[in-house]
């Protein structure tokens, strides 16, 4: 389908940053051209052909149509000229505005929220993702049931001889939507319980968790694949991946950690989606370390970073906490010119919480892995451990979770290892060797 993308620039809109924001007091402003390019990219993500894109200045938003009559007539002529049957308005539209614009233009109209929901609906591949998208879609549709078609105004008769006027069709449709929403919310409650069980099992097998977050198309999935060797879809496309993925990976010195790839963030993320995907996004809260991946080749990466930090703040990760367990990954430096590339590397060298790299070429990746290992090592204690002959299966766990400096195979079949480990790893080893129940085995690759 051919589509026209319209980016309204509302002059009297309120600033995005609300009072009390804990992360950043003033949001970097995006250029109008960048907004148009992002909106067009969202449309292309669902295989739409962009016939035209235009930026429209709105001095005073109109309750009925958002834009003035002159611009509406201009866009109507453009639709006829380009033979386009869809208009994407990169701005929230009320149900009345959407209905009126469709009447004026004689074309289908969707706003930014509807477009993102459409993308998520196509990308969801697991049952959990589908449930979350369906719930967000129903909550969005519930507000769109306006009296714009005659069949929504018909009355259904009440029950019994003296039945009242009954309910209108729109009321019946709204009730059916609410029933579906309640059903989906119950199913998602089961998803939340399942995730909590998975987290409990991970605590019993205490591998640290590293979560990747970032603006959509920042290169998270490419970095995920580079580190783990996984085959997660990674394309130069907004929201190329949606469902979260977890994989094991080895750090320098052999320690095993779990790497989690999450859904990409975006500016003005619909509240329906934030609420529906909270069970998924809360995986970030459980992470021992968060890698905030930024596309440094994008001129608007500062504004994108602000949006990511705001969502993290909404999830409950405040500024102080994020500084302790968040590393900024300045990605896509291979796309920069040599002078900018070198300057960026110099800036990153002077900061403990910033790593510059290219997930495509691998430049800077070893330094990132060393920094992750350093952050997760905690206070390491040197000790000597003897593994009895009947517990030799524990040796592989020691190699995978601690730093082994030496090994001696004894005549009685036991093995003595010189290791460095944290207090948590020491407690886990004691449990395995001796006295507690065997650790649960968790299949991470799902």
Automatic annotation (TrEMBL):
Secretion signal span: none
Task performed by this protein: GTPase that associates with the 50S ribosomal subunit and may have a role during protein synthesis or ribosome biogenesis.
Keywords: Coiled coil, Cytoplasm, GTP-binding, Magnesium, Metal-binding, Nucleotide-binding
Residues involved in GTP binding: 214-221, 239-243, 261-264, 331-334
PROSITE patterns, per database record: G_HFLX
Stretches assigned to coiled coil: 167-201
Subunit architecture: Monomer. Associates with the 50S ribosomal subunit.
Keyword presence, Nucleus: no
SUPFAM superfamilies assigned to the protein according to its UniProt record, in alphabetical order: P-loop containing nucleoside triphosphate hydrolases
CC cofactor: Mg(2+)
Family according to the record: Belongs to the TRAFAC class OBG-HflX-like GTPase superfamily. HflX GTPase family.
Record-given protein name: GTPase HflX
Gene: hflX
Organism: Aliirhizobium smilacinae
Primary residence: cytoplasm
């Amino acid at each position: 389908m051919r589509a026209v993308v319209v980016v309204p620039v509302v002059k009297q809109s309120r600033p995005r940053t609300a009072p009390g924001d804990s992360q950043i007091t003033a949001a970097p402003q995006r250029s109008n051209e960048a907004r148009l390019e992002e909106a067009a990219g969202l449309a292309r993500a669902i295989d739409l052909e962009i016939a035209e894109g235009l930026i429209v200045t709105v001095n005073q938003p109109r309750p009925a149509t958002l834009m003035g009559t002159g611009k509406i007539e201009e866009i109507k002529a453009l639709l006829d000229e380009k033979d386009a049957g869809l208009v994407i308005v990169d701005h929230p539209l009320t149900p009345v505005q959407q209905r009126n614009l469709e009447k004026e233009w004689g074309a289908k109209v969707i706003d930014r929220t509807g477009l993102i929901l459409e993308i998520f609906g196509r990308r969801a591949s697991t049952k959990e993702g589908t449930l979350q998208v369906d719930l967000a879609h129903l909550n969005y549709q519930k507000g769109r049931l306006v009296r714009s078609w005659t069949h929504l105004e018909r009355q259904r008769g009440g029950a019994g001889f003296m039945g009242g006027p009954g309910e209108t069709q729109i009321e019946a449709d709204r009730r059916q939507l609410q029933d579906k929403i309640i059903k989906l919310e119950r199913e998602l409650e089961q998803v939340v319980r399942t995730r909590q069980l998975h987290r409990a099992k991970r605590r019993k097998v205490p591998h640290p968790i590293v979560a990747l977050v970032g603006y959509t198309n920042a290169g998270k999935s490419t970095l995920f694949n580079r580190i783990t060797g996984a085959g997660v879809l990674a394309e130069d496309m907004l929201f190329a991946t949606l469902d979260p993925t977890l994989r094991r990976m080895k750090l320098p010195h052999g320690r095993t950690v779990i790497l989690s790839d999450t859904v990409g963030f975006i500016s003005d993320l619909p509240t329906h989606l934030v609420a529906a995907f909270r069970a998924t996004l809360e995986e970030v809260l459980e992470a021992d370390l968060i890698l905030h991946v930024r596309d440094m080749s994008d001129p608007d990466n500062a504004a994108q970073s602000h949006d990511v930090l705001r969502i993290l703040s909404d999830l409950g990760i405040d500024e102080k906490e994020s500084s302790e367990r968040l590393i900024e990954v300045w990605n896509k430096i291979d796309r920069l010119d040599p002078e900018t590339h070198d300057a960026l590397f110099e800036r990153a060298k002077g900061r403990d919480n910033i790593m510059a790299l290219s997930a495509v070429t691998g430049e800077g990746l070893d330094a990132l892995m060393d920094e992750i290992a350093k952050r997760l090592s905690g206070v390491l204690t040197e000790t000597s451990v003897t593994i009895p002959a009947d517990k030799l299966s524990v040796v592989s766990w020691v190699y995978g979770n601690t730093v082994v400096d030496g090994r001696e195979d004894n005549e009685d079949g036991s093995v003595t290892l010189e290791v460095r480990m944290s207090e948590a790893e020491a407690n886990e080893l004691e449990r395995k060797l001796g006295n507690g129940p065997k650790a649960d085995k968790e299949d991470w690759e799902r």
